[in-house]
Structures are given as C-alpha cells and as structure tokens.
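#lab-general

N.A. 3:47 PM
ok so I finally got the sequence cleaned up, no stray characters, all 500 residues accounted for. can someone with queue access submit it? mine expired

B.Y. 3:52 PM
send it over

N.A. 3:53 PM
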Amino acid sequence: MTSKPRVRFAPSPTGYLHVGGARTALYNWLFARHLGGVFVLRIEDTDLDRSEARHEAALIEDLQWLGLEWDEGPGVEGPHAPYRQSERLGIYREHTERLLREGQAYRCFCTGEQLEAERASAAADHRPQVYSGRCRGIAEPESARRAEAGEAFAVRLKIPDHPLRFHDLVRGEVEFPNETVSDPILVRSSGMPVYNYVVTVDDALMEITHVIRGDDHISNTPKQVAIYEAFGWKLPEFAHLSTILGSDREKLSKRHGATAVASFREMGILPEALVNYLALLGWGAEGGTREIFSLEELTREFRLERVTASPAVFDWEKLHWLSRHYLKQAEPARVEELAWPHFAGAGLLPVLETAGPDVKAWFAKLLALFLPAVSQLDELPKKAGFIFGFDVGAARANEENAAVLATESAQKVLSAFAAKVGAQDGTVTPEQFKAWMNEVKAETGAKGKGLFHPVRIALTGSHSGPEFDKLIPIVEEGSRLTLPVHVASVRERVERFFAE
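B.Y. 4:20 PM
back already:
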C-alpha cells in the first residue's frame, strides 16, 4: 500500500451533482491536498439503464468550475486506469472467479419468488429480513453442474461468523453483528456486479487509503468490510460525513430550493463563494470564529478531526452573505462577463459578442451601481429593470407609491419638477438635477422624503433606489445607446409619467 494518502470521489452519472456530493468531493480534495496525497475521480456507471454521458460531462464540468481538479481519472489517466466502472467489468469477473474458487462466495439459484417469500415470512415473524443462506450448503460440484446447465444464478458473499468492525474518523469505532448482515449479492443473475462489490474492488486496487463519503453509506460499510476480509485486503480508514438538512431539518431536497451545483452557477453564485460555504457545512477551522476562506486557505486549514458528526443545516442567508462578499472582491471585468448573459437573456442587452465598446462601458457603470444590492447575479436584471423601463400604471397603483402621490405636497413637487425638465434642452447632468431639486424645494417648501420620493417615483417607479447623482448619468448615457430596450432619458420619463 502506498504511503501517500489516496482518496477518491466516485459519483454515478445518473443525474446532476448536488451540494451533498459536491461537499464530499471538496472534503476529499482538501484532505488530499493538505497531506500531499492523491485525489482520484472514478465514474461509477454500472447502472447502465440510468447512466448517461451527458451527466458525466456535467459532473466533470461542475467539479472543474468548483476548482477541484483530480490527479487520476477521466482525462488524467494514471496507473489504475480505467476509471469508469463500465470499462472494468473484466476485472470484476476475475475477482469473482477467485472468490468462488477460494470458497469465499457461492452461487445462489434462488428465484425472485423464493426470496420474496422468505422476506414475507421473516416480516410476519418479526425476524430480521435477511437472506437465509439456503444455497450456501450446495456442494461446489453440484453448483457448477447447475450453472453449466444454464440455470440462472447470482453470486453471494459468505458473511463471516464474527462482528464486522471498522474505524470511522468522524464517528469512532463502529460494529455490526454479523447476523444482521445477510450474505450480500456480489453479481446479479444478469451478470452485472453490484455497487458494494465493485466499489470495494476498485478502492482496494486503486490503493484508496481513506474513504470519505456521506453517512447514507454507513449501512453499506459492513458488507464492504466483509469483502475486504474475503480478499485478505487491508481496510482503509472510513469517514462518514453528516447529512445536509434543509431549514425544516429534513433531508435537503428540491423543495428547499436549488440543490444542484449547476443551478447555483446559473443563479450567478461565484464558485469561490459556494466552495467556501460547502466547506462550512460540517467543518470549522481551529478557533471556530472565522468563516471566510479561499480554496488555498481551506487547504491549509482542513483537518478531518474538525468534521462534526452532527447534521448540517443549509442556510441560504449565510450563502448569500458569502456570495455578496465574493462578488464585491471579484475583478469587475470578470463579474461583468458573468452578469451580462442575465441581461441578454432578459432581452435588455445584446449578446455580449455583438456589443460595442460604448455599451460595454455603460454596462460596467450600471453594474457598479447595482451589484452591492444583490446576492446573486441573476437578481440584477430585476434590480436594475427600471433603468430600461417601468410600468407607469403599476407604479401609480402601488399602495406605498399611491400614498405618496396622493398628497398635495407631492403634486406641487412633481408640477414644479416637470416645469424644470420641460424647459431643459439636451442632457441632464447630476449638477443640474441637484440645482432643480433645490429650486423645487424653495418653491414648494417640501424637503426630505416629501421632496425626493415623488420625483423618484416619476423617474424609477419606486420611492427607493440608488442616489440620484449616480443614477442620472446611467439614465442619460443609456438613452443615447442603441439597445434592445430603449432607455428613456429623464425628460422622456417625466413626459411619460404625466401622460399616463
């Protein structure tokens, strides 16, 4: 066995990579990188009916987006290739023949009906629903004869007559009584090996020293321990990670919101924010007060001993807090490139490749104005939507707006402001706008919210928003650009508001 720690992430390409799997991949990667070990990616695709190449491609894309590159695996061939289980069937056949030859496994000729009758009888008698082992006693010559005659059979492992024990780096010593673990099927009657068998063979042959995975695999572990013992292989260290729960403390699922890594990417959560957050779902650094870590810092700090066995609760508020931090820290050019498709998809901007430098420069200013107000990039088109236009009727009908506009003071302010705008030719500057507001204040006696809220509603459709000195240049410059949706100038906005 190699002296370097070797870990693996072994997803099944039957769906998208979810946060639980992403956290498992991250912890394996951090463990390997911290100790100078090897991180292996293995694709467990023996479920041929559900495994799809598109899901494998998406898994690989998600891992790369998170920054979790592997040392061995698809595209990075190593000494233990191939790294797709569907390409290792010959290896499993050889090992099955060895187990049968050495008497560690046996052929099971029981039919589905017989097995179901056993389960029903055990349930009725309140006994454990484990296989009776009726085919264990078939002599090898008789077993071989029946197999050669074409009788269908599965291959089962002989569970030893002693408790199955393993050490868990998160949970300590774990033991399962052997009588609670029935002789597990290794190979189905179809000839296809089962998960617990192939994963154990692969882990042993790939020299995996530490198996770090979700706690939903704890019940599989005693069967895998028995397979290790049957071959005379040394057990790896196990570490079973706690379940991730939703806010209702039920297992995280789609009803709690996004759970797939691809969904977070589409929302506009930066990968460094998601990695930082996933690391905190069950782990904390020494001292327990720090929460912001780069991937490099996580690599230095990560220890399996700091992983807790208690379930972790997925907290959207904390993820959004981290997301805002990383959006603020990111290079503006990078954020602009990531944010642009959200506006283009909403029909507000042209496709990035066709946009001119003037539009790109204006968008950079727009983004700088609205980015501090969002937690994920897909919120930007709605947040900045009034720049491109708003429904005057809906703005007037809004209860809070209507209450502001109904006052006599508001009517005087808007009338005075409209007169200023109507007398203006050309572009409105922030300085000119400020002068107008001072004049309106002097003419009407309005001040504070009474002065600014009516004007803001007329220009933006809402009584709250960015400061006017930052907003006016965006509106005026945008009105001179050729965009899929025309940005109305200050004059156009006021005219339209009064016209409707």
